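Email to the structure team, subject: T-cell surface glycoprotein CD3 epsilon chain model.

Hi all, the expression group asked for a predicted structure before they design truncation constructs. Nothing fancy, just the tokens so they can compare against earlier work. One-line instruction: predict T-cell surface glycoprotein CD3 epsilon chain, return tokens.
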Amino acid sequence: EEFLVEISGTTVTITCPFTEGHITWKSTGTKPDSSNRTYVIENHDSSPATVSCSVNSKMHTMYLHARVCANCEELDALAVTGIITADILITFGVLILVYYFSKDRKGGASTSAGSRPRGQKAQRPPPVPNPDYEPIRKGQREVYAGLESRGF
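Reply from the structure team: attached below.
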């Protein structure tokens, strides 16, 4: 046998486990004036309280620590599931869009105003060779005549 506690806004409704007889309620903080099976606390301030109900010599006691708020909205499990599912689907949709739009640009050349096309690079003349390292050409061996081969 257990108490049944229902919370809606700032109203707390407690149902006593006893089903028959004259029920007497006792509570810390408030003075219950109900002899019904249910005890309703209007404008509960979320402070802890001890609530008990008794019939003749039998008594049930409960420690009530219920957090309530005036501006809260109650959502059922289906609404919460729908909100979470919609959030996940929207997130995956955005990820797929970003992936497909960024995939096309990954290997392409940049077309910004400051960059030059690649064709101009091929039209540039070759650099001037260093005269100290000129290759030996036929008919020009006298330039290197002063170099004698060494026998090892």
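The mean pLDDT is 78. The helical segments are 77-105, 119-123. Ping us if the truncation boundaries need rechecking.
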